[in-house]
Design brief:
The chain is of the alpha+beta class and 667 residues long. The protein is built from 24 helices and 18 strands. Strands 11-12-5-13-15-14 form a six-stranded mixed β-sheet, with helices on both faces. Strands 3, 4, 6, 7 and 8 form a five-stranded mixed β-sheet that branches. Strands 16-17-18 form a three-stranded antiparallel β-sheet. Helix 2 packs antiparallel against helix 3, helix 3 crosses helix 17 and helix 12 packs across helix 14. It is globular and about 100 Å long. The termini are far apart.
Length: 667
């Protein structure tokens, strides 16, 4: 490795070294791993059926050559092969179903929700999914691919022409002021292996066809070469040219939508797997330098949608109890991730005193970003990407959080918005989903003006049409107009925020109609396929793993005074009756007891107590402060299960809730 004095030949060697590693991996996998064309045959087809089919064809051909007799030895031979062939098909299908029954639990248990449905549709629904051959009036796969290319080419261009050039000059000035980062982190085999094991399996590879499995099973020699490659890249602040290229796969946003319109599709970018591994390694060294505001709940450990929803719920309830209205603005930023100014991002990183070496690596990487669209096997022309964080990148969510972090600080320092004591709670962010809260329309307008000004400076386009306003603690104002970027934002009575439908009015309420619909859809899909083919315990596991979360999403923050828990209980009990084929009038509590499964009402209590326990241990000051507001509410829930203190362990809660349920079961 070079010791710092980079020459052109040095960076060219990095490209050659990377290409050699990729070629070796592909060559080794091609020579060792058999490849089978997807859905070329039925999944239960085997060589025995091939032989029987060939024998039947031969017998039928001979039968036709002798005049198609309706009796005699020739016809009997043909019929025998025909019956044997049909019987073998039925038996093979039956055996496949039985094998599916035995492997279903293990195969699907290891998958998350998205991967489960992807695997499910791949096996059962792929034949019904057809791609369009007509897009924006253009016919044929090549023309469709070109239309998508033009569509996505415009996505990765800045909202304002040359808006990034201003920050390029500022970046160059800042690099002259900051001192060079002489420290160079060393990447060893142990770190490389640890990062590989963090990567997800069964994911589509990039254009080089290298998948996570290649790296996982590549062996010790591969780890040595990867460490040499990555150390050289870090030392020279250089990444291979192919690290920047991605394949964009257009996916239909809505299956019921118009497939012939390009705006009905969203693009998913497939990046090189080795590039993802390098991002994991960079995260190990520089991830702690990419922190963001405590009111940003997205893409952080021990933080999620429920924490943002809890913050919103308790903040609005706090002011409603004091007799005040809370005016909320739910802001939509158009393609926010795809419109990040590259030089603007680097300027923000340098101003935060992030490692200069890390910034140089990112700058070199982002200068090489390009993409091409793949559609039905046709790959379109390559086009450059001028803005946006890398889609699917491991660092991308953190970089985006840094990009909008100053907006949260500006809102905090404005003096407007709601405060709980001295704690500012006037903005709640989950990635690019931003909610602003104020006790006056005047204050709300001032906060939106700050957002507009920030968007103009940093080329973020907030969409007033998709943004919404809503009031809690009373009705929406009749004669008040609020503007975002000089355009009117509409007042609404129901808003979808982070997956939950919130209903405005005198109190905090939610609408679970969509959650029930999703639950029924998932439940009926599973039962229509596995209904009488799998045993009841496996079917119950599938429903608990992949249907119940649809129904109980966000239950940690459900306002129990406005949610019909009895109705939710009935929905879950009817599911039990359907799985076990019980009489509709029989109680399912004994059945739930023997299946070690709680009714919905008990599950909600358990989850709310465990969620509250996590809030008490959180390092987020906002969450800990708001947790103190619901202390007596949680004590009331805990008392239902004979729990005396709020400082309880997970095992204590689970055992107490289960014991409470057992006491009401009548055998």
């Amino acid at each position: 490795m070079c010791n710092g004095s980079c020459q052109n030949g040095c960076v060219e060697s990095i490209d050659r070294y990377y290409n050699s590693i990729v070629q070796c991996l592909i060559s080794a996998s091609n020579s060792c791993i058999p490849v089978k064309k997807f859905r070329s045959k039925k999944h239960w087809w085997n060589d025995e059926l091939d032989d029987l089919k060939n024998n039947l064809i031969a017998a039928t051909t001979f039968w036709r050559s002798v005049g198609c007799p309706r009796s005699g030895a020739v016809n009997d031979n043909r019929l025998q092969w025909k019956y044997r062939y049909k019987l073998a098909i039925k038996q093979a299908e039956r055996n496949a179903n039985q094998a599916f029954n035995e492997e279903l639990f293990e195969y699907f248990s290891a998958k998350d929700d998205d991967a489960f449905w992807q695997a499910w549709r791949k096996r059962y629904c792929s034949s019904s999914l057809k791609t369009t051959s007509n897009l924006n009036g253009k016919q044929g796969d090549v023309n469709v691919c070109n239309e998508f290319t033009e569509e996505f080419r415009t996505v990765f261009q800045t909202n304002t022409v040359n808006s990034d050039c201003i920050f390029e000059e500022e970046f160059l000035k800042l690099t002259e002021l900051v001192s060079d980062d002489t420290s160079c982190p060393k990447i060893d085999i142990e770190l490389c292996q640890r990062c590989i094991h963090k990567m997800k399996l069964n994911k589509s590879p990039g254009f080089d066809n290298v998948s996570t499995e290649h790296l996982l099973y590549g062996g010790g020699d591969l780890y040595v070469h990867l460490c040499l490659l990555f150390n050289t890249m870090v030392q020279h602040c250089y990444v291979p040219e192919k690290f920047g290229h991605g394949l964009i796969v257009p996916l239909l946003k809505d299956k019921q939508g118009n497939q012939s319109r390009s705006d009905m599709y969203r693009g998913v970018t497939l990046s090189p797997t080795i590039a993802k591994l390098f991002e994991y390694i960079l995260m190990e060294f520089y991830g702690d330098q990419l922190s963001s505001d405590v009111r940003q709940f997205g893409f952080k450990k021990h933080s999620g949608c429920c924490h943002a929803l809890f913050t919103f719920k308790e903040t609005t309830k706090y002011f409603i109890k004091k007799g005040s209205k809370v005016y909320c603005a739910f802001i939509d930023a158009s393609k926010a991730f795809d419109k990040v100014l590259h030089n603007g991002l680097f300027v923000k990183l340098l101003k935060r005193n992030v490692s200069v070496r890390f910034v140089y690596i990112l700058r070199n990487w982002y200068s090489k970003l390009s993409a091409s669209v793949i559609w039905n096997g046709v790959i379109g022309p390559v086009f450059p990407i001028h803005c946006g964080v890398r889609q699917g990148g491991i660092l991308s969510p953190l970089l985006f959080s840094v990009y909008i972090d100053d907006l949260l600080n500006d809102l905090h320092n404005s003096g407007y918005g709601v405060y709980i004591g001295s704690l500012f709670a006037g903005v709640i962010a989950y990635a690019d989903d931003i909610c602003i809260l104020s006790c006056s329309c005047y204050g709300l307008q001032k906060l939106l003006d700050i957002c507009s000004a920030y968007g103009q400076k940093w080329d973020i386009r907030f969409n007033p049409v998709k943004s919404q306003l809503m009031t809690f603690g009373g009705s929406n104002p009749d004669n008040t107009t609020v503007y975002l970027d000089k355009k009117v934002v509409q007042w609404c009575t129901k808003v979808k925020y982070l997956g939950l439908y919130l209903i405005g009015g005198a109190d905090f309420k939610i609408d679970l109609t969509a959650a029930k619909r999703k639950y029924y859809g998932c439940f009926n899909t599973i039962m229509s396929v596995v209904g009488n083919q799998v045993n009841e315990i496996m079917a119950l596991h599938l429903v608990k793993s992949y249907c119940l979360p649809q129904l109980m999403y966000g239950c940690e923050i459900w306002p129990l005074n406005s949610v019909n828990i009895h109705e939710i209980d009935i929905i879950w009990n009817n599911g039990f009756r359907r799985i076990f084929n019980c009489c509709w009038r029989e109680s399912v509590k004994p059945l739930q007891f023997y299946c070690r499964t709680l009714p919905i009402s008990y599950l909600i209590g358990e989850r709310q107590l465990l969620f509250y326990r996590r809030l008490l241990c959180s390092d987020n000051i906002v969450l800990r402060t708001l947790a103190g507001l619901v202390r007596f509410e949680m004590l009331g829930i805990a008392a239902k299960y004979d729990i005396k203190s709020i400082y309880f362990s997970t095992a204590t809660v689970k055992n107490a809730v289960w014991s409470s349920f057992v006491n009401v079961v009548k055998f």
